[in-house]
Amino acid sequence: MQQIKAYGAINKDADLKEMTITRRDLNDNDVSIDILYCGVCHSDIHAKNNDWGNAKYPIVPGHEIVGRVLEVGNKVATYKKGDLVGVGCMVDSCQTCSACQDDLEQFCENGMTGTYNGKDRIGGAESDHTFGGYSTSITVREEFVLTIPENLDLKAAAPLLCAGITTFSPLNHWKVKKGDKVGVVGLGGLGHMGIKFAAAMGAETIMITTSPSKAGDAKRLGASGVLISNNAQEMKEHHASFDFILNTVPVKHDINPYLNLLKRDATMCMVGAIEPLEPMHGGSLILGRKRVAGSLIGGIKETQQMLDFCGDNNIVCDVEMISIEEINQAYKRVQENDVNYRFVIDMKSLKN
Which residues have a Cβ under 8 Å from the Cβ of 232 and sit 6 or more positions away? Predict the structure, then answer.
């Protein structure tokens, strides 16, 4: 076992602080990674605070990881020392169920293993659950390691491993293309990536928001227009005109007004709110054969496709850099929506 530095919490009420954790020794198909940058996701905060009731302590968050390969196991064929790689939201799955066979490991029928707070299938460390990227290094089986394009700004590439794939996957699955009209609801860590991807795919991309003050930033990110959703006249003008809507709002809200924006046979996909929503009126679906769907990150194959797309189109996240010592304040700012648009930890600050 390897002892390494990490930042974690011992219970839901504790601040994150430096601690020592163990990583398993290198297995034949493992890749050991020196972590350079790790993004801060709102899910990290929910998990640390046990908002979902499944937290295992001590908890070390972080699932937006970019680093360089330190060492590889004897049977690793894809990576070598020095390669630029990433690790996203999962580090294992059963690899045998129908979902895994379809490259949809995130929907593993036996439960995918989260990068942190997941039940460790492999073992070899003191803990029976996984520890994430707020640490100096991580050991991951080869199948769950991703190649990061060398031309990308590495610190800004880290959030692609969650915010990026969360928004790319539904746009890719519903085959958004040039000429489509796509709405992105909510301008935060997810929404700003949704705008970048939809625009890069050639769609007429409309930012849908309640805040007129966000119009300038939305257009800077690639939106061709802005729709103020609490303006009845504007909503009427866009009635039944969208081919696809990506809803990134992370809290309970009323989706009925957005359903009226969809064309016949069009889809709104939810990626933000993992909680009950306001009641939905069935008539809004029936009158137009419309769909409300959901999406969860993406499989490893699709995540690599997303990273390659980002490399080809020079797409990264808008980030604010912090040291590991600033993480507790960063959590507070995320909860206050005071970040444009993603915090990223420079992990050199933990290694000093």
Answer: none
Q: Classify each residue of 254-263 as buried b or exposed e, where b means 16 or more C-beta atoms within 10 Å of its C-beta.
A: ebeebbbbbe
CATH code, 144: 3.90.180.10
Number of domains making up the chain = 2
Q: Are residues 8 and 82 in the same domain?
A: yes
Q: In this structure, are 256 and 267 located in the same domain?
A: yes
**In angstroms, what CA-CA distances link 266 with 135, 262, 291?**
43, 6, 6
Which domain does 277 fall in, by range?
Answer: 165-294
Pair (71, 38) in one structural domain: yes
d(CA 166, CA 281): 26
Write out the chain's pLDDT in tens, 352 residues: 899 999 999 999 999 999 999 999 999 999 999 999 999 999 999 999 999 999 999 999 999 999 999 999 999 999 999 999 999 999 999 999 999 999 999 999 999 999 999 999 999 998 999 999 999 999 999 999 999 999 999 999 999 999 999 999 999 999 999 999 999 999 999 999 999 999 999 999 999 999 999 999 999 999 999 999 999 999 999 999 999 999 999 999 999 999 999 999 999 999 998 889 999 999 999 999 999 999 999 999 999 999 999 999 999 999 999 999 999 999 999 999 999 999 999 999 999 8
- In order, the DSSP letters of 24-47 are PPPPTTEEEEEEEEEEE-HHHHHH
Helices H / strands E in the chain, number of each: 12, 17
**Domain CATH number, residue 198:** 3.40.50.720
Contacts of 14 (CB under 8 A, 6+ apart): none
Q: Same domain, yes or no, for 180 and 223?
A: yes
For residue 131, which of 121, 120, 122 has the smallest C-alpha distance?
A: 120
In this structure, the number of other CB atoms found within 10 A of the CB of residue 226 comes to 19
CA nearest to 36, candidates 162, 144, 166, 134: 134
The answer on 171 and 93 residing in a single domain is no
Same domain, 176 and 281: yes
37 and 152 fall within a common domain: yes
Instruction: Find out whether 92 and 113 touch, Cβ atoms under 8 Å.
Output: yes
Q: Residues 25, 122: one domain?
A: yes
